[in-house]
Amino acid sequence: MENLYVAPLNGEALKPIIESNHEITKGTAMGVELNAQGDPNQPYVKAVEQYNLLAFEFSLNPLNWIAPIWYATGKAKKRREALETLLGFTQQVINERAEIFDELEKSGQKVEKKRMAFLDMLLNMKNENQLSNEDIREEVDTFMFEGHDTTSSGIGWTCWCFATHPEIQEKVYQEIYQHFGDSDRDIVIDDLKELKYLERCLKESMRLFPPVPAVLRKLKNDINLGGKIVPAGATVVINQYVVHRNPMTYPNPDNFDPDNFLPEKAVSRHPYDYIPFSAGPRNCIGQKFAFYEEKVAMIWILRKYKLTTNYKLHDNLGGNESILRPKMGIPVKVERRN
């Protein structure tokens, strides 16, 4: 048995999986290859990290809210530069894909709708006068900015849950093996619909460790909360990390228990008792894509490897950032399956 220690779990650990299923890496949301795993200093990735850190620092220190102090520190300039990198890269991605899309249209070729990248669908809607250039840029900004870090957080925490619960991991592996057998074939959408126990495990992982631990909302109307009036215009913080640990909703809320998402239990809960992707009109536009992405990644990981660790589930705490990052990384041993 070949052992490999990974802390934290990173792109190199997943390289054999990616190489063995190259078709997955080619079918991306934007139709453009970023090479974010191969190049840790990729400008867009670094700009996202810097922008998030500065935004988080700004929100936590009231002194930063005084404009002269914030600008005097030089951090306002750094945040503006990071934002310019983000917006510039997004526009470059749109322009490059639009050129390819236009060339196909001019040559009389059309991309089948079922094979369109997300950006292709947006460009197609622009040609049908349903979206403006600004609409497309906003959607791509949201998808790229929110989509890359959150899914990696979700995959990492799920690996952690499986490593600390070997009996659950084995049950998931058996479900995968019964479905695929010894085959090394690609994963298709119909496969994802069949693996119900894996789906419950992913949902439970996001209950305990929501990739985005809190969201903000600006109130349009006054709200009465416990006899206190929260006025319209106020910004409220909705903390999924706390909501998902309500003992009245989830018995033994700190335990990793995929049975929390048995159909008969899920149907009896209020929809807002489980909000890893937020909820309402401002919920995550890429939640289905993200869930499929995590499911595909976990199938390939467990097909090839067994995850173990000497730690317990709650030895690893979530770091207080805009994305829920494990303070210890993901200290697991990755053993190649026979």
UniProtKB/TrEMBL annotation:
Belongs to the cytochrome P450 family. Keywords: Heme, Iron, Metal-binding, Monooxygenase, Oxidoreductase. InterPro entries: Cyt_P450 (IPR001128), Cyt_P450_CS (IPR017972), Cyt_P450_E_grp-I (IPR002401), Cyt_P450_sf (IPR036396), Cytochrome_P450_Monoox (IPR050196). Gene3D superfamilies: Cytochrome P450. The keyword Metal-binding applies. SUPFAM superfamilies: Cytochrome P450. Heme binds at C284. Coiled coil: none annotated. Its cofactor is heme. One of its GO terms (molecular function) is iron ion binding. This is Cytochrome P450.
